[in-house]
Design goal:
It contains 14 helices and four strands. With 326 residues, the protein is mainly alpha-helical. It folds into two domains: 81 residues, no CATH class; 240 residues, Hypothetical protein af1432. A four-stranded antiparallel β-sheet has the order 1-4-2-3, with no helix packed on it. The longest helix is centred in the middle third of the chain and has 21 residues. It is globular. Bound molecules: fe (ii) ion (FE2) (2 copies). One fe (ii) ion (FE2) binds next to helix 6.
């Protein structure tokens, strides 16, 4: 039986039918089972007030009293309430029937959810699911040029930390793909985890400092600058990712000319993976819209990086990065 309910009555386990074409919402399909609270939040965010539910396909584990329409509820069935986001990502990445533009949007959206999940609770399981999901995105970037170029064009500045993580992840893997073309000495799936999670340490920093508009005072700056080490510590405690990943997180604010932090490393003292992440990180920070600064176009950002910040980057790597946009 199909009936309408208010969106606020929507529950995990209900099978929903979306009225809109999928271009206007971030889900892969118009009909699907709700498996997490996050999906309900996303549906609330797209402006729906009522939603169609198919009770025959729903898998509710408890009776829903607030539904005013008659509903035939099925007895509890075995189902996974916490479907892994990496599974959703895999489904999208390898679906050959979806157009690149659409695929890029869904992959991007799922990647942000994935970041959100790791940030909310950086447990071993979530980091493991995160790495799996990132690995699917890395596959997409390596094997599907058209879709990954579409991802470059997606601009979304809500949830800055998550979008920033995904942007830096995508840009860094793309740069690595160019730099390491023709060799298989580098495990881009492992590195991808480091690039996407490079700012994980920020979860240990007071949000008032992270979100403060304008300049940080000296004390705040010192706290903020501890995030590479904090991220390194989180990963060391959860003991799941490799040393390369930890190096990316620890070194992404080091600068070629020795003006970075936390160690003020110079030139070759900085690992090639740290240098890659640094370029992508600065580029995304310049092109992002924030409450306290206007956003630059990619062209303007690259120009500033070249003319005013070149000492910060490995020159040849920066040149390769610029070529990504040509
Ligand atoms: Fe950072
Ligand atoms: Fe960053």
């Amino acid at each position: 039986m199909i009936y309408f309910i208010d969106l606020e009555d929507l529950k995990v386990g209900m099978y929903v039918i979306l009225p809109r074409s999928w271009f206007r919402h971030p889900f892969l399909k118009n009909r699907f089972l709700i498996t997490s609270e996050g999906q309900i939040e996303t549906l609330s965010g797209i402006g729906l007030r009522e939603i169609e539910v198919d009770s025959a396909k729903s898998q509710l584990v408890e009776e829903v009293e607030s539904i005013s329409h008659p509903a035939i509820l099925h007895p509890p069935q075995k189902w996974e309430p916490e479907k892994l986001i990496s599974d959703d990502l895999r489904e999208v990445v390898y679906d050959t029937t979806v157009e690149p533009q659409e695929k890029a949007q869904v992959v991007y959206h799922h990647s942000i959810q994935l970041m959100q999940k790791v940030w909310d609770s950086p447990t071993r399981e979530n980091i493991k699911d995160g790495k799996k999901g990132i690995s699917h995105v890395v596959d997409l970037i390596l094997h599907d040029d058209e879709t990954s170029l579409c991802m470059l064009n997606i601009v979304s500045h809500d949830f800055y930390t998550y979008t920033h993580s995904v942007n830096v992840g995508v840009l860094s893997v793309m740069l690595s793909k160019e730099l390491f073309r023709g060799t298989d000495d580098h495990d881009l799936h492992e590195l991808g985890a480091g690039f996407f999670l490079h700012d994980l340490g920020k979860l240990k920093i007071d949000p008032n400092i992270i979100n403060k508009p304008g300049r940080l005072d000296n004390r705040e700056q010192e706290i903020m600058r501890s995030h590479p080490y904090q991220g390194f510590k989180v990963l060391r405690e959860t003991d799941h990712l490799s040393d390369e990943v930890k190096t990316i997180i620890f070194q992404h604010h080091e600068r070629e000319d020795g003006t970075g932090y936390p160690r003020r490393l110079k030139g070759d003292e900085i690992h090639v993976y740290g240098r890659i992440c640094c370029i992508a990180d600065v580029f995304d920070a310049l092109t992002a819209e924030r409450s306290y600064k206007r956003k630059l176009s990619p062209f303007q950002a690259l120009k500033i990086m070249k003319e005013e910040m070149l000492g910060h980057f490995h020159e040849d790597m920066f040149k390769t990065f610029v070529l990504l946009f040509n």
